[in-house]
Amino acid sequence: MEKRLIGVEVENFRSLRKVSLPLRPLNVLVGPNGAGKTNVLEVFRFLADVIRTDLQPALDLRGGFGEVRFWGGEKPPSHIQIKLKATWTTHSSRSAPDEYALRVTRLRGGGLSRRESFQFKRTQGRGRRITISGQKVSVVGISKDRAESTEREIGISALSSGLSTLPRLSDDRGGTEVSTVAKRLASFRVFDVRVDAARRPSRFPRTDREVLDDDAANLAGFLLNLRSRDEGAWQRLVEDAMEVLPQLDDIDFDYPSGAAREVVIVLHERGLRRHTQIADASYGTIRLLGLLALLYDPNPPALTCVEEIDHGLHPQALELLVERLREASDRTQFLIATHSPALADRLEPEELIVCERRNDGSSAIPAVTVEEIDRIVTESEGLPLGDLWFSGALGGDL
User: Fold this and answer.
1) pTM
2) Mean per-residue pLDDT for 42-70?
């Protein structure tokens, strides 16, 4: 069974008043500015921050509960809620998925309360449900014949996440499964190449498992490590870069501060008397290298989100990009945001998620079902998805 995120349900998180989104290996969000594409990505950044830093710091980073909850409507909502379904743990399946829910509520006195729940399958016909409310944790064993329940106080504050601070449970109470879910959530990455950072030298890789930074600030170190670890993947990456950049002959490295200290990327280009350091490369070239690094990452996170993936890229690069996204989705799921009809042209109906903004300020995501997209494509006699979206036939106008 593939380890996948099956879907997410969100209530009252920014513009996501009530959204239920099935997730496939490759998911591409399209729609106008303000439709909620970024807020979908932000849900997963928020969950990762909850695990890495805890719930209160994750809220504070975003300006507090009042800045995170839905702004529309006549009355502010009293809670935000995020639910996930996945097949991450050993005995899970699409018919018996892992389930995680986080609900944060504004109390009448002005304070906040947190409630979390986890449910997962343990063995044939048996599962566990763990609920954390306040300082109490309840562990329920579920089977066809009976339910076992225990409850005890735990030493965490009312606004700490159970996933980030829950004392280790024994394996028979779900400790292994809780740890698995926490690791998956903490690995979620919202990737956006920061070109000015990627231009600079990066430190020499300290281990053979160099992790690509969310902004590609360590691009040179990551690529150097990839070349030494996986010659085949490195060669395919270079060939992809050469296909999109016809003047490129090769990619190499230099060490301006001496070996084993700093490393920079060097491009070998036709017709030039000297090599080009990455600091002098074009914006689009650096964006391309950052995205290729992401797509060839041998140890990707459970979910990779990318905002405006086509930004700075020539339309001719998009065919290759979509092919590589599909290949890499065997190792990580993708949630992508784009404004590019040219990229949408290269997608299948099940990969496209149309986003719209309603008059009450809430987001409609997906605004069109896969079945409706299939029907519209058939009635249009096979027009590309980008053309249909651009024309307004799919909604989610540019």
Assistant:
1) 0.91
2) 93
